[in-house]
Design a protein that fits this description.
By secondary structure, this protein is an alpha+beta fold. The protein has helices at 6-11, 18-39, 47-58, 63-74, 106-119, 149-155, 172-181, 203-218, and strands at residues 83-90, 96-103, 123-125, 134-142, 159-161, 164-167, 186-195, 222-227. Strand 1 and strand 2 (96-103) form a beta hairpin. The longest helix is centred in the N-terminal third of the chain and has 22 residues, at 18-39.
């Protein structure tokens, strides 16, 4: 299982310059707003929102930014007309890519993504052309250096690879809570798309793929990027 994810990208930029931090906070704010719109602002019943707020705090997102994003979700503040989008495409060496995001203008974002893919020997794919190559799973990242196998199995995990614990989408929060109760230290958790099979490419294609991921990550709308690159 592998996937380039925005969360991992921003993890490497906690000490980024103000412009980069501003982009990160903007993306996080959009995700929080969507989460509130979908399941409300009460973190006792909205586990997704609770996790997002925790992640935002990890990246030192100002409290007022978080509160503003929540109020946009509840309608207390006027915000952008946001919608979730998901695009599928091919990248260098024929790798398959899923790009999930949030935008206030789907057509504009579609044009931007087409342009980015075209710069790196990639192209858009039709809906469903890529997604069948992936599985939707929950992923829990645990702190390195812990013995987690027994606890993860007892918690109902599907798979364990190193410090990562994989679950069925609907079991993510239950498994995470069980691990915490067993004393396992959690770094983060999320739902994502994971390749059923990975493919290897030559070094030239790999370098272009990395540049493509970075360019997609710079786009304001793109939140998560998943590929089957080995």
């Amino acid at each position: 299982m592998s996937g380039h994810s925005h969360a991992k990208t921003v993890a490497a930029t906690k000490n980024a310059n103000d412009a980069k931090k501003g982009k990160i906070f903007s993306k996080m704010g959009r995700v929080i707003t969507i989460a509130v719109k979908e399941k409300g602002a009460d973190i006792s019943v909205n586990a997704t929102l609770k996790g997002l707020i925790e992640k935002a705090k990890e990246f030192n997102m100002p409290k007022e930014n978080i509160e503003r994003a929540i109020k946009k979700g509840t309608g207390e503040l006027v915000g952008e007309n946001l919608e979730e989008v998901s695009f599928e495409g091919f990248g260098p060496g024929g790798i398959a890519i899923i790009m999930d995001g949030i935008t206030d203008n789907k057509n504009r974002t579609l044009g931007e993504i087409k342009g980015i893919l075209g710069q790196y020997e990639g192209k858009m794919a039709g809906e469903g052309a890529i997604r069948w190559m992936f599985e939707r799973k929950g992923c829990i990242e645990t702190e390195k250096g812990q013995t987690i196998e027994e606890a993860a199995i007892e918690a109902g995990a599907d798979d364990i690879r190193g410090e990562f614990v994989y679950t069925k989408p609907e079991d993510l929060e239950t498994v995470k809570k069980s691990l915490e109760e067993k004393g396992v230290r959690i770094v983060g958790s999320s739902l994502g798309w994971f390749a059923k099979e990975e493919i290897a490419v030559d070094e030239k294609a790999r370098e272009k793929a990395q540049k493509l991921f970075e360019a997609l990550d710079e786009n304001d709308a793109i939140q998560n990027i998943y590929s089957n690159l080995a």
